[in-house]
Amino acid sequence: MPKVAIYNVSGQEVGDIELSEAVFGVEVNQHVLYEVVKNQLANKRQGTQSAKTRAEVRGGGKKPWRQKGTGRARAGSIRAPHWKGGGVIFAPKPRDYSYSVPKKVKRLAMKSALSSKVQNSEIIVLDELNLAAPKTKDMVALLSNVKAAKKALVVTAENNENVIKSSGNIAGVQTATVNTLNVYDILKYDSFIITKEAVKKVEEVYA
């Protein structure tokens, strides 16, 4: 089983924890990670882009000149795509980019993402994370004490308003709960900071 140190908010090592081999010690599957991240990014797309085709641009109902005898190329509308003010060829229209990925693939991707953090020594386990009040200064001090990278993801077991508000104004720092944890965020941030309580909950969900 992978074993990592546990730190307090002052950055002192206060023990260690054995992580579940089935969740934090699997072989990292790069292809599955790619597929799930691609799926997440596709599902985030709004798909609201739109442009007008030649049929939708205002005007152009009259044929600009007769078909033959003028010496010019044939033209049926002044709103043809190659005319100034004409419509767009294959114009983009609102569409839904989202698609689904099998649950087993998502679970394997989550385990691979968590295991990659352990293998790359990017996981920091805290014994607890209880801030008395929402203060950015306290969160900055905590991140400095545990030597977190500039881009850090802070994961708690339950929704913690003080932690969320204290991290809100720190560039590159994001908070999440076990329920909102996703593969893209785990891979996006260089430091994965998680409480001991949240570790147990993650192992229960993905074991």
From TrEMBL:
Record-linked Pfam families: Ribosomal_L4 (PF00573)
Keyword annotations: Ribonucleoprotein, Ribosomal protein, RNA-binding, rRNA-binding
SUPFAM superfamilies documented for this protein: Ribosomal protein L4 (SSF52166)
Molecular functions (GO terms): rRNA binding; structural constituent of ribosome
GO biological process entries: translation
Record field: compositional bias (Basic residues): 60-71
Region (Disordered) residue spans: 44-77
Top-level taxon of origin: Bacteria
Any one Gene Ontology cellular component term annotated for this protein: ribosome
NCBIfam families recorded: rplD_bact
PANTHER family to which the protein is assigned, alphabetical: 50S RIBOSOMAL PROTEIN L4, LARGE RIBOSOMAL SUBUNIT PROTEIN UL4M
HAMAP family from the UniProt entry: Ribosomal_uL4_B (MF_01328_B)
Function text: One of the primary rRNA binding proteins, this protein initially binds near the 5'-end of the 23S rRNA. It is important during the early stages of 50S assembly. It makes multiple contacts with different domains of the 23S rRNA in the assembled 50S subunit and ribosome. Forms part of the polypeptide exit tunnel.
Family: Belongs to the universal ribosomal protein uL4 family.
Quaternary structure and interacting proteins, as annotated: Part of the 50S ribosomal subunit.
Name recorded for this polypeptide: Large ribosomal subunit protein uL4
Gene from which this protein is expressed: rplD
